User: What shape does this take?
Amino acid sequence: MIKAGCCGFRLKGGAKAYYKSFDLVELQSTFYKLPRIETARRWQREAPQGFEFVVKAWQAMTHPSSGPTWKRGGVIPGMKERRQYGHLKPTDKNFDAWERTLEICKQLNAKICVIQCPPSFTLNRESIANMKRFFVRIRRDGLTLAWEPRHQSWHDNPEVVRSLCIELQLVHVVDILKRDPQSTGDVTYIRLHGLPAELSYGYSYTEADLKLLLRKATGLDAERTYLLFNNVTMVRDCLRFKEYLSDCQRDK
Assistant: This one.
């Protein structure tokens, strides 16, 4: 099964318009600031039957509070608390941030939570130790955790990424037009950030790109493949991909 959608309700008319064309979304607002429980319940009620929410984890546990994304979320911790946030440190603040994220996932009946680490989270002993101590302790309650490392040091050492994904039961979030996924299991999670550079959000995927993407996605050994577009023209590109996917499925 391949499901395709966008990172956010990036469609004129918002969620209501989005629901007419897609059955999957990766929520971006949850990364900046978690909604109230009542708000998450309303989102779930308003979505059509069969619609799937993927939650992008709150940045509190992954991104240092000195980063620009915290300002966008409008939540700035006090000076004494700042060092306890980010980089998956095994601190009370980060564990609390996870518990709050997990509750939102439950309200939305989410199956997957994306945990995106910033470029400042480099591959070193401290980062690996943080990951192990953090992921071993948190509750999952059946939720699949999809981890996206962003610094080049992780990309240059796929064997380390693979080992961590196996040990900590994580799905490696990857752009398969740039590199291969290093996790094993029933789920593959793909995020597409444009070409050719690592983050080229202004890029529009060509017909050749989308057909190559389809070949790679259908060739993966996974029961469920999630494919999320995260570029400026994500809506148009995703709809075109879904057309190719539909044609491929009819031909089988």
